[in-house]
Amino acid sequence: xxxxxxxxxxxxxxxxPYWRYVERAIEEITRxxxxxxxxxxxxxxxxxxxRSAGDYTDIVQKEMYTFEDRGxxxxxxxxxxxxxxxxxxxxxxxxxxxxxxxxxxxxPIFRYDRPQAGRYRQHHQFGAEAIGSAxxxxxxxxxxxxxxxxxxxxxxxxxxxxxxxxxxxxxxxxLAALKDYYCAHVARLCADCKARFEKNPLRxxxxxxxxxxxxxxxxxxGLEHLCPDCSAHFAALQKYLAVLGIPxxxxxxxxxxLDYYTRTVFEFQPSFEGRQSTIGGGGRYDDLIxxxxxxxxxxxxxxxxxxxxxxxxxxxxxxxxxxPAPAVFIAFIGEAAKEAAVRLAGELRREGIPAxxxxxxxxxxxxxxxxxxxxxxxxxxxxxxxxxxxxxxxxDMRSATQEKVPAAALIPRLRRDIPA
Length: 420
Known about the structure:
This protein is of the alpha+beta class.
């Protein structure tokens, strides 16, 4: 038998209420903060992600699903959302709109990685991008939007971790200090970090291997190497977060996994411990639009994994109401009654009344078991007696009482008794 590919998951009907709950919260929070939805293709030209993420990031080196189409073009399934949004921003002239341009997306994301709780090879993200302003108040607003989104969902116990990784002016000096420090520890590094030491030293701070974490804990701190502009930007951001009442924990090892980040980086961590516990994160990317061929355009954004949100909602015991049951179950006895039942079901649905119809041949007792299992508020019974008299039997499934109702009066009666 075929099974879903490793690292993917079917979203079954029993899980759908959680997804609809999260999607309603996304619609509400983006309305409050003035973001408009954008949907980009599920695949893009491979060069877009190589140019944005960086050739020596784990995403590009290990995790992208890349293939060549029949025209010989190298394409990649979207491993993250920001580059595609920035590509669309440039391609469709959104740089001519008043800044900041605020966009959000809900998208499947593809990464070839070891499947783990809430992070599959195909998973889903809600992301938001604010493009066109360097103001640290925008960073604070983006963080506040994410913070309020989690609160709207009912998630508690989250910690905001915050750092600044500087800009093109001050980062080279910090990277040199990092390499000087790590020179004495190269032999103790894991294989990945030995490669990072040569090609992407900032990522040394982000390694999850215990032997490397101990070394990273004592590494030089980026905040001590910021240029005056980056230092002032970070101080202002912390001031605005305090104004908004959002507590932040400084984490000098927080760098995120993409090369395009500048200055602000942040993550939201749930209260439970785990190797990959981050529920969402983001930061500022002031140089990305230029890298993609546009003019200098500062920007800030965040993304959060929907599967991880749902895991945390379940851990916190969130119980959602079951899907609504049909208002009416139509039980029929005999072929002539079946035709009338099919007609009635169509009429009810056209009137906006959810209706379920029994199928196959069963006794009245069997039909009523079906009606009870469906959770319907009412059962409508049609048999030879009802057909002869131009009536139906309307049974209240809660009180277990029933009455004969003229067939022509049934829909007005149900409209009166069933809330819209």
